[in-house]
Amino acid sequence: MIRLPGLIDPHVHLREPGATHKEDFDSGTCAALAGGFTLVLAMPNTRPPIFDAETLDLALNAAKQKARCDYAQYVGAGPDNADVVAALADKAAALKMYLDITFGQLRLDDMTLWMPHFEKYPKQYPIVAHSESRSMAAAILFAAIYDRPVHIAHISLKEEVLLIRAAKEKGITVTCEVCPHHLFLTADSPLPQGDRGASRSVAEGGSGVRVNGRKEVRPRLATRSDVDALWENLDVIDCFATDHAPHTLEEKDSENPPPGFPGLETALPLLLTAVAAGPFGAAQGRRLTLDDLIQKMYVNPRKIFHLPDQPETWIEVDENAEYQIKAFEQFTRCGWTPFEGWKVKGRVRKVVLRGKTAFEDGKILVEKGYGRNIRQQ
Ligand SMILES: [Zn+2]
């Protein structure tokens, strides 16, 4: 049995308010505890989005009643709320900006709309950017121009990790995270496909190509050479984040499958399995170590997001337990995982959160509302 600090996931979608049939603060924080996470940072692209005082209260009230692990809630950048979100910074996890995938009230059509956010959001908290490829380069340029920290969400490409390395070498305050699914899956990975997933014919306005909705995720699964580049540049990667983005199987197998994978309950077992596998890479000189996990799932997120200590908090992991990942054993409400049937080594046995056993041997032992908002000390 090994003992690790309570893990921190800086990127989860708990779907509350607005889509609680997929997940809510209760089921999502149960999944977190079962996965060894004692603190999660919840993304703001809910319905409604969390982007002013009123919507922040809405999310925080739900979290206060339901969360079983500790949490903080992001605010989202919109076209005209830079002053509003800056004033809420001490109550929020950080500011999330969607620089590529833009929709609804968090839509930022051009860079003039980024400027007031980079100018005004307090510099002790990062701006977290969903920014892929060239927009990631633009986000890093903004970090340099405005001399403030930017955290790049879920990098997935070789060009991204190489550019972040170069930016760090120049002293630009950029940090980044990578998701387990971008380390363990490529666009060619054989993922199970639902039998209900039907494509729209050309006559119906569709492509005629059958889409496997269970592969849909943003950023998309990348090539083998991208995945290899992430592993080869692990020293540049500050955090492992799940981007836990649950959708039901029915939705994933529908004609318009929403992008996103659940991840809270599979991240640690997958990464522990990589640790157990030992040295890898052409030169066999590199390996993922337990210390890397502690740095990227505890030490660095605490530092980057200025998160307080969780006293008397740790997790116990049976590093030798071998088993298969099974969606039906999970707490997430979405009912599936892209890693179904994968053989892994390393199981979370026990989670102690602020002196209380919150999870043990497959059971959640703390009630709804035990989780605390770490921004309200
Ligand atoms: Zn996300």
Question: Can you describe this structure?
Answer:
It is a single chain. The chain is α/β, with parallel strands linked by helices and 377 residues long. The chain is built from 11 helices and 14 strands. The strands form 3 sheets. Strands 5-6-7-8-9-10 form a 6-stranded parallel β-sheet. It has a 5-stranded antiparallel β-sheet with strand order 1-11-12-13-14, with helices on one face. A hairpin with a 2-residue loop joins strand 12 and strand 13 (356-360). The longest helix is centred in the last third of the chain and has 16 residues, at 290-305. Zinc ion binds next to loops.
Fold blueprint:
Layout: E1 2-5, E2 7-12, H1 25-34, E3 37-42, H2 53-66, E4 70-73, E5 75-76, H3 82-87, E6 95-98, H4 115-120, E7 127-130, H5 134-146, E8 150-152, H6 158-169, E9 174-178, H7 180-184, H8 224-232, E10 239-240, H9 249-252, H10 267-277, H11 290-305, E11 314-324, E12 343-353, E13 356-360, E14 363-364
Parallel strand pairs: 2-3, 3-4, 5-6, 6-7, 7-8, 8-9, 9-10
Antiparallel strand pairs: 1-11, 11-12, 12-13, 13-14
Helix pairs in contact: 6-8
The structure holds zinc ion.
Q: What attributes does this structure have?
A:
single chain, binds zinc ion, 11 helices, alpha/beta, 377 residues, 6-stranded parallel sheet
Helix segment tally: 11
Rounded average pLDDT: 94
Q: Helix/strand-derived class?
A: alpha/beta
Order of helices and strands: EEHEHEEHEHEHEHEHHEHHHEEEE
Shape, please? globular
Cα-atom Rg, whole angstroms?
20 Å
Q: Which consecutive residue ranges, at least 5 long each, have pLDDT under 50?
A: none
Count the beta strands: 14
Strand share of the residues?
A: 15-25%
The end-to-end distance, rounded to whole angstroms, is 33 Å
